[in-house]
Amino acid sequence: MSATDPSEVVILAAADMPEKEPRAASPRRRARPEGLVRSLLRNRKAFAGLIILAGFILLALLAPVIAPGDPSIITGQGAQAPSAEHLFGTTPKGQDVLALTLWGSRSSLLVGFVVGLAATAVALLVGLTSAFFGRAVDDGLSLITNVFLLLPGLPLLVILAAFLPPGLGTVMLVLTITGWAGGARVLRSQALSIRGKDFVAAAIVTGEKSLRIMFREILPNMASIVMITLLGVVIFGIGAQAGLEFLGLGDPSVVSWGTNLYWASNDGALMSGSWWAFVPSGAAIAFVAFALALINYGVDEVSNPMLRSARRRPFGTGTEVAR
Amino acid sequence: MTGITDAAPRNVLEVSDLSVEYRGEKRTTRAVDRVSFTIGPGEAFGLAGESGCGKSTAANAIMRLLRDPAVITGGSILFDGRDVLAMSPDELRSFRWREVAMVFQSAMNSLNPVMTIGDQIMDIFTTHEGMTKKQARVRAAELLDLVQIDAGRLKAYPHQLSGGMRQRVVIAMAVALHPTLLIMDEPTTALDVVVQQEIMAQIGDLQQELGFSILFITHDMSLMIELCDRMAVMYSGRFVETAEAKGLFANPRHPYTRALINAFPPMHGPVAELTGLGEGVRFTNIPDLVEVSPGHLAALDSAGTHDSLGGRS
Amino acid sequence: MTAQPPTSRPQPGASPQGDPVISLRGLTKDFQVGGLFSRRTVRALNQIDLDVERGEIMALVGESGSGKSTIARCVIRLEQPTSGQIVVDGVDVVREEPRRASHEYRGKVQMVFQDPFGSLNPIHQVRHFLERAIRLHTGVGRRENIESTLEELMATVDLPADLLDTHAYELSGGQRQRVAIARALAMEPQVILADEPTSMLDVSVRIGILNLMRRLRGAKGISMLYITHDLASARYVADRTTVMFAGELVESGRSTSVMDHPAHPYTQLLLSAVPDPDRAGSYDPVERARLRNAVLHSASCPFDGDPNAGCSATEPVRHAVGDPADRHWVRCHMYRPSAEVAARALATDKSEDDDIAQPAARGKKA
Asked: Which helix (H) or strand (E) covers residue A145, if one does?
């Protein structure tokens, strides 16, 4: 943007709003202090995403109620198309696909969120520490972060999963190890830029301790980007878990979307045309990822007012004159 | 610096009863409230007031740069006799930068950091005048010379120049197409006092050479005394006083003007305590301007009195 | 020195009563700049000797890049000096607390920052800033006494107590600076460093802040180091003023004496640039160029004739000026700053020689 482009002036024009009273009548101009959650609920995209996600979580929680019993029990003839008895049909083995999908959501969502939280926590710790404790610490941690970023993810996943005992715990550990580095980079640079602000210097000068500054001064200002990182890692967690399990590296005895796909492929559902055996699990992964992405967009819009789509009219067409 | 007196030369800018509102979700604020003033050819007009009084909004309105939630709700803006508010997008495009140009607040910080100065200046010529790069480069060098910058600096990036030099580049870009009116919004904020004076002198020199009119907006009234022919003091969207610059300083009639002038600690004499201005709401229901002496108008009601001055020092 | 009648607080600019609250000797600070392949050392401060007396406001004036903020950041221990002494309240801080400032030190020396919009964390309420300051440094108990102390603080800085529950972003610039000052005061410091506290405020709001500073100095005897490039405000609020150029001190003394009788060409340059409504048409490019030249290449010193003066081109000698009670000294004109440093500080596009020739040659262009 060159200086002749006056679109920048939009911000200036808004900033000239007269502030006569010391206390603004409605402090809603900034979303951050209002509470990320409340403003998210007002954002259309985030709201839609939250509804979809909530729906999935609800179904996961109610799986034992809607489809009681062990979902891997064979309850019907193999490879039956969807019918009244089996709403999503049966797998080539004869298991009820609906039950498998519902029960699968429990494990998939659990792993996804645990990985998301763990990896984000590690990334946050690394990022904040890098930003706050000086050059030497920063260089060391950056080196470690870069190493983890450079290591090819999928091969590392495969190798680790092959060597460690199978089970959900392994999957969660492996995904956390490979998932934290990207977030660490982003959080570090955000923490660094906040670290340079005067209010951090003021806190130091006031005599606040380092840990307190990190967590009570810097971190709250990073709320939206932490959220975005978290959501991104959750998507990664769900997808990568499914990927691992599809390759057979997960625990095949666990019921999850990934293992559903694994068995569907193993038992030849793809070749026999039994699309109902793998579409529900695949679609579920896609929908959850979509919901999380919507929430992500919402968080982005809420924290960056320039992205909001409310009432934008084209430039200088004369519509701003309302006589 | 010619003053305007007769009707024969047409006024470059005539603003009458301009009103601008900010329409928010919960409340609507009047940022500019029935403001009127004129600027003649070659004249420098100063607009003084504190932050938030509406002066920047008024300037943006003149160039039709306001967007949601700002809306022009009344009045007229005539540029060289033409109705600015009725211009179509095409007319506006040729209107802006060719006839009216603006130096925004902190413009020196809004230069594109990844383009050289030369490229950014040439940009203006290739876009607006359809010149070739060669021709544009020649004009760019001439322009830099006009603001006392060595033509070798065309290859420099903005971060390689000092703040004062960047500001001169921005001013040069604004006058590149020889506009009739140059609007400057706080052009010397964030500059040191020595550089500030040089920029002000530079603006004065440019005006002598190119003959444009100036609308100069600032909260620092002392800058205006040397540059401006006439000036106005704005408060909460309304004009409280307008007069010839020297006359305004010599004989301020409205208490707000007086308070604003007194907010400058003097450089000579004993150090006495100044009262300054409070921070609460001070004036409400500002009356229309009335003439208190030839060419000097103030917002005093018929009894020559005013609303009370509240707030603390 | 004539005997001073005993007073409850030191007379401005008079002979010092007791030791200075801040005493800098030989303070030097170098910065490393440049990337991987071209690291350069930039000397931001060079052998600074400066005293701030108890109960006085000392102004430190100079342009951007002169190093005045760096002095404040060294004293407040946000930067580590390369060499030199910083003695605060009799304690050689750099020697006693080499790595980081002690908690006690933080309670003695406080700072108000330039940007009112950046120095208060947007997520906190006003109450938070003051409360933390009080809890960290005074022995105030858990719940009870705080409220009245908070209200007292707000009253001291002329803010209504109900603003305690607002967020920083709801306040105007002037109000924010008052909050910042209240935060500094909450710790009952001995000295406050104010780094351009009014330069980002409207001109009309500045007086309020300056008056507040004067009141604090008068009523509470707090010393202040007031950093600014606005000479008029320095004259208004400071007892003594020190002028800084290119990382070195060039002149100092009672504010009125320095401003009314500037002895160094750089001070004269600064003074000539102050916009003065009473002195219209003051920009004279020839005079401006002459002063620049004098700062960079002066060949003689007005004190040269005096055998006691000890003019030197290599050592920064200080000559006394005027009434001794004003403590007004000027650096010897013959001492030249390193050309590279000075030229950067006076950055112009054309060389200084051109500047002198230019005004005559500059005529109307086609």
From this structure: helix A135-150
Number of residues in chain B: 313
* Residue B284 reports pLDDT greater than 80: no
Q: Which residue of C has its CA nearest to A28?
A: C170
Nearest to B33 by CA among B47, B48, B17: B17
With vertex at residue B242, the alpha carbon angle to CA B67 and CA B13, rounded to the nearest 5 degrees, is 50
Ranges A143-147, A245-249, C227-231: which has the least confidence: A245-249
Return residues 173-232 of C near B (CB < 8 Å).
173-175, 202-208, 210-211, 214, 229-232
B290-293 and C223-228 as β-strands: parallel, antiparallel, unpaired? unpaired
pLDDT of residue C363: 34
Contact between C295 and C313 (Cβ < 8 Å): no
- In the three-class reduction of DSSP (H, G, I as helix; E, B as strand; rest coil), residue C244 is classed as strand
Residue A243 tokens, joined: 């990927």
Mean pLDDT of A188-202: 92
Which three-class secondary structure state does DSSP give residue C136?
Answer: helix
CB C303 within 8 A of CB C321: no
For residue range A284-305, list pLDDT tens digits in order: 999 999 999 999 888 888 776 6
Scan residues 58-87 of B and list those with Cβ closer than 8 Å to A. 60, 63-74, 85-87
pLDDT at A20: 35
Element (H, E) at C224: strand C223-228
A24 touches chain C (CB under 8 A): yes
Residues B256-267 pLDDT 10s: 888 888 888 888
| 3-state DSSP of chain B | CCCCCCCCCCCCEEEEEEEEEEECCCCEEEEEEEEEEEECCCCEEEEECCCCCCHHHHHHHHCCCCCCCEEEEEEEEEECCEEHHHCCHHHHHHHECCCEEEECCCHHHCCCCCCCHHHHHHHHHHHHCCCCHHHHHHHHHHHHHHCCCCHHHHHCCHHHCCHHHHHHHHHHHHHCCCCCEEEEECCCCCCCHHHHHHHHHHHHHHHHHHCCEEEEEECCHHHHHHHCCEEEEEECCEEEEEEEHHHHHHCCCCHHHHHHHCCCCCCCCCCCCCCCCCCCCCCCCCCCCEEEECCEEECCCCCCCCCCCCCCC
Q: Which of A30, A32, A206 sits opposite C133 (nearest CB)?
A: A206
E-strand stretches of A25-104: none
**Within 10 A of C247 (CB to CB), how many other CB atoms are there?**
27
Mutation site for B-interface testing, chosen from A1, A320, A323 by largest number of B Cβ within 10 Å? A320
**Interface test with chain B among A1, A7, A8, A9, by most B beta carbons within 10 Å:** A9
pLDDT tens-digit series, residues A117-133? 999 999 999 999 998 88
| Tens-place pLDDT, residues B59-95 | 999 988 888 788 999 999 999 889 998 889 888 888 8
- Which subunits count as partners of chain A given 3+ CB pairs below 8 Å? B, C
Testing the interface with C: which of B162, B264, B309 to mutate, by most C Cβ within 10 A? B264
Beta-carbon contacts of residue C72 (< 8 Å; ≥ 6 apart): C111, C193, C195, C225, C227
A45's enclosing H/E stretch is helix A44-66
Report ipTM for this prediction.
0.82
What is the structure's pLDDT at C199? 86
CB atoms within 10 A of CB C97: 15
Q: Which of A12, A25, A321 sits opposite B56 (nearest CB)?
A: A12
**C169 interaction partners in chain A (CB closer than 8 Å):** 27, 30, 33
B276–C207 CB contact, under 8 Å: yes
Amino acid, single-letter form, for residue C324: P
CA atoms within 13 A on the CB side of B103: 29
**Chain A: residue whose CA lies nearest to C121:** A199
